[in-house]
């Protein structure tokens, strides 16, 4: 058990360092923050002073070492735009994002999993075909297109719901639905194929041959096995709770982490971008570790210590 | 009355016939072997009889269990028959057990369904069954998962599950094919012993006549979805009446000798979508007559308890006598 976690913690740390390093290099090579933040006609001395004060005149590797040293002291830098700590800026946006992504996660699970199971249990029926056609539509349509379609229908045409902003819970409905539909479609397809795979296994036939009623075969024998691959994709969805709404937040002008990221990237606000990426990587990595743990719970073959097996 | 009587059982998948009229009976306590090449329909016969085929299978005919029709019976009826009166075990024990449930739970499930045993009583009985099928340290194995056991032990667990409902008939579909030779012999011994002790009928499916000869009294030889010959095991070896059976016997390795590549029967099994109108074996048959291609030969009695579906069956009997 200790080795299990030691290994995964190390892998997680390496993942995070790689993400942060990658972001660091790409951001610094892709444009000069000084020129973007100061106006174009700013005097050269002012630009130089800006560079010095943010350490941008140092060689890249010095900046990199400094940056990491600061992270270990809990300092994620300051926004170049308003000088506030980047972490504060990011953290204050998190609730707004979660207000979209958590309800959307429930839609994904509550719609996608039952739809996938039902489709698999009625394979090739009209019901199956309908569910799968909807699922294909649901995940081939990009979320910004779906979002815009929903806005056209429910905000512009019918006038039932607002098209953007964050004033009330009604403003959250369209973005939540947009996020939820895409994810539900992915999950439905995934659950269906996991379920079909399991239903074709010999142990399902064994259960029937034993006299287990079909409902109980599905519940007691098929679902626990189909849950194993499905957990991977659910883990991925949980991991993207913070960063999974970039596009939708932009479409619906929702002031969450995603929009902050878009603005910060456009401005080369390095500390803010890096802070968000660090947070995203950390969530992803945590979700992954939870998935690994769940695997161990769901699938005895993945547990280390054999039980009851003498020799 | 026979325990199970299958009459004119026919099965097809997407228009391709897999069974083309199977008639077979089995009496209480009897051991019947079913033999034939891969794909001839041995498994499908019993999967169809127990309602275990996927929905796309088209099934007709009759399967009676002590006179009661079970083909197309309600799910509730079938659930009582399956495991309770007729149990079935399969070829690949490793994948036939549910990987996420403990052995004890998988045995107890059958005990609870067919004998109403739960909790400690079920556990004690599950333990007794594991002992009975020869699993060492049964008490601890109850808590093991299938992947922690060997193939032979998993097959013993499958047998324990099958015995849990105290069935009148056990259908063992190639129970030893996936196991190595020494384990094969042990499992066959076990099945034979259990059958005698529990007075249970046994259907042993195999493509190996040698295996069947060890455990069965009677054998049905299948070819391309039909039973082409049926006889007491000694007669099959002494006086096979169907050219296909003779071919199978020619392909049987010497009992003590090393297993060698079999002297296979030349030619191939016909495509189920393009069955010849006459005898399905005729295209491969060395002694076919013109009439063989005309109509499907009906089974005819060759001797007491010995039938063969071959136009020459009677004639051959005379030649061999
Ligand atoms: N689920 C299925 N869908 C389609 N065809 C099937 C299905 N099950 C069996 N068949 C076909 O039915 C025929 C008989 O198959 P069956 O499994 O009974 O053969 P078998 O005699 O048991 O062979 P083996 O020795 O390989 O187990 C084969 O042609 C097979 O392809
Ligand atoms: Mg088979």
TrEMBL record, chain A:
<keyword id="KW-1003">Cell membrane</keyword>
<feature type="transmembrane region" description="Helical">
    <location>
        <begin position="133"/>
        <end position="160"/>
    </location>
</feature>
<feature type="transmembrane region" description="Helical">
    <location>
        <begin position="98"/>
        <end position="121"/>
    </location>
</feature>
<dbReference type="InterPro" id="IPR000515">
    <property type="entry name" value="MetI-like"/>
</dbReference>
<keyword id="KW-0813">Transport</keyword>
<feature type="domain" description="ABC transmembrane type-1">
    <location>
        <begin position="94"/>
        <end position="295"/>
    </location>
</feature>
<keyword id="KW-0812">Transmembrane</keyword>
<protein>
    <submittedName>
        <fullName>ABC transporter permease</fullName>
    </submittedName>
</protein>
<dbReference type="Pfam" id="PF00528">
    <property type="entry name" value="BPD_transp_1"/>
</dbReference>
<feature type="transmembrane region" description="Helical">
    <location>
        <begin position="226"/>
        <end position="251"/>
    </location>
</feature>
<feature type="transmembrane region" description="Helical">
    <location>
        <begin position="12"/>
        <end position="31"/>
    </location>
</feature>
<dbReference type="Pfam" id="PF19300">
    <property type="entry name" value="BPD_transp_1_N"/>
</dbReference>
<keyword id="KW-1133">Transmembrane helix</keyword>
<keyword id="KW-0472">Membrane</keyword>
<dbReference type="InterPro" id="IPR045621">
    <property type="entry name" value="BPD_transp_1_N"/>
</dbReference>
<comment type="similarity">
    <text>Belongs to the binding-protein-dependent transport system permease family.</text>
</comment>
<feature type="transmembrane region" description="Helical">
    <location>
        <begin position="172"/>
        <end position="190"/>
    </location>
</feature>
<dbReference type="InterPro" id="IPR035906">
    <property type="entry name" value="MetI-like_sf"/>
</dbReference>
<feature type="transmembrane region" description="Helical">
    <location>
        <begin position="271"/>
        <end position="298"/>
    </location>
</feature>
From TrEMBL, chain B:
<feature type="domain" description="ABC transporter">
    <location>
        <begin position="4"/>
        <end position="249"/>
    </location>
</feature>
<comment type="similarity">
    <text>Belongs to the ABC transporter superfamily.</text>
</comment>
<keyword id="KW-1003">Cell membrane</keyword>
<keyword id="KW-0067">ATP-binding</keyword>
<protein>
    <submittedName>
        <fullName>ABC transporter ATP-binding protein</fullName>
    </submittedName>
</protein>
<dbReference type="InterPro" id="IPR003439">
    <property type="entry name" value="ABC_transporter-like_ATP-bd"/>
</dbReference>
<keyword id="KW-0813">Transport</keyword>
<dbReference type="InterPro" id="IPR050388">
    <property type="entry name" value="ABC_Ni/Peptide_Import"/>
</dbReference>
<dbReference type="InterPro" id="IPR013563">
    <property type="entry name" value="Oligopep_ABC_C"/>
</dbReference>
<keyword id="KW-0472">Membrane</keyword>
<dbReference type="Pfam" id="PF08352">
    <property type="entry name" value="oligo_HPY"/>
</dbReference>
<dbReference type="InterPro" id="IPR027417">
    <property type="entry name" value="P-loop_NTPase"/>
</dbReference>
<dbReference type="Pfam" id="PF00005">
    <property type="entry name" value="ABC_tran"/>
</dbReference>
<dbReference type="GO" id="GO:0005524">
    <property type="term" value="F:ATP binding"/>
</dbReference>
<keyword id="KW-0547">Nucleotide-binding</keyword>
<dbReference type="InterPro" id="IPR003593">
    <property type="entry name" value="AAA+_ATPase"/>
</dbReference>
């Amino acid at each position: 058990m200790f080795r299990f976690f030691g290994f995964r913690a190390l892998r997680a740390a390496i993942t995070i360092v790689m993400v942060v390093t990658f972001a660091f290099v790409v951001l610094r090579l892709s444009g000069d923050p000084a020129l973007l933040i100061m106006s174009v006609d700013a005097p050269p001395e002012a630009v130089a002073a800006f560079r010095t004060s943010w350490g941008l005149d140092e060689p890249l590797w010095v900046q990199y070492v400094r940056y990491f040293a600061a992270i270990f002291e809990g300092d994620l830098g300051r926004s170049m735009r308003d000088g506030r700590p980047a972490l504060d800026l990011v953290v204050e946006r998190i609730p707004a994002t979660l207000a979209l992504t958590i309800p959307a996660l429930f839609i994904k699970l509550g719609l996608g999993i039952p739809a996938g199971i039902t489709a698999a249990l009625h394979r090739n029926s009209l019901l199956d075909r309908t569910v799968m056609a909807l699922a294909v539509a649901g995940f081939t349509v990009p979320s910004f297109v779906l979002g815009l379609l929903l806005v056209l229908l429910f905000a512009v045409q019918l006038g039932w719901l607002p098209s953007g902003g964050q004033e009330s819970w009604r403003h959250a409905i369209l973005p939540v639905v947009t996020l939820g539909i895409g994810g539900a479609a992915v999950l439905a397809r995934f659950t269906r194929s996991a379920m079909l795979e399991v239903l074709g296994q010999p142990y399902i036939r064994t259960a029937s041959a034993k006299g287990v009623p079909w409902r109980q075969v599905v519940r007691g024998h098929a679902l626990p096995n189909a849950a194993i691959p499905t957990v991977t994709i659910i883990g991925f969805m949980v991991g993207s709770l913070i960063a999974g709404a970039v596009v939708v937040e932009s479409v619906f002008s929702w002031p969450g982490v995603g929009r902050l990221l878009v603005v910060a990237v456009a401005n080369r606000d390095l500390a803010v971008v890096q802070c968000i990426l660090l947070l995203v990587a950390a969530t992803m990595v945590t979700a992954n570790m939870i998935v690994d743990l769940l695997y161990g719970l769901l699938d005895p073959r993945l547990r280390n210590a054999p039980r009851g097996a003498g020799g | 009355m026979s325990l199970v009587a299958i009459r004119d059982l026919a099965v097809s998948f997407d228009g391709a016939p897999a069974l083309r009229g199977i008639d077979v009976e089995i009496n209480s306590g009897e051991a019947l072997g079913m033999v034939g090449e891969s794909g001839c329909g041995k498994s499908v016969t019993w999967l169809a009889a127990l309602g275990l085929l996927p929905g796309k299978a088209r099934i007709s005919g009759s399967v009676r269990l002590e006179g009661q029709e079970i083909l197309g019976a309600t799910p509730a009826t079938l659930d009582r028959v399956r495991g309770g009166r007729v149990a079935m075990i399969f070829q690949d024990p490793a994948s036939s057990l549910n990987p996420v449930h403990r052995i004890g739970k998988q045995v107890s499930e059958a005990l609870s369904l067919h004998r109403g045993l739960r909790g400690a009583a079920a556990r004690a009985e599950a333990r007794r069954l594991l002992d009975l099928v020869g699993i060492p340290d049964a008490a601890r194995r109850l808590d093991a998962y299938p992947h922690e056991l060997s193939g032979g032990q998993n097959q013993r667990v499958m047998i324990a599950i099958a015995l849990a409902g105290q069935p009148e008939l056990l259908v063992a579909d190639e129970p030893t094919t996936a196991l190595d030779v020494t384990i094969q012999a042990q499992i066959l011994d076990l099945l034979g012993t259990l059958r005698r002790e529990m007075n249970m009928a046994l259907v042993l499916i195999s493509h190996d006549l040698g295996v069947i000869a060890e455990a069965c009294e009677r054998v049905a030889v299948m070819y391309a979805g039909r039973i082409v010959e049926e006889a007491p095991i000694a007669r099959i070896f002494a006086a096979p009446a169907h050219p296909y059976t003779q071919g199978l016997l020619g392909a049987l390795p010497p009992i003590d000798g090393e297993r060698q590549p079999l002297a296979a029967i030349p030619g191939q099994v016909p495509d189920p979508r393009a069955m010849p109108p006459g005898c399905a074996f005729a295209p491969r048959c060395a002694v076919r007559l013109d009439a063989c291609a005309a109509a499907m030969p009906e089974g005819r009695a060759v001797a007491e308890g010995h039938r063969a579906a071959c136009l020459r069956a009677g004639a051959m009997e005379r030649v061999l006598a």
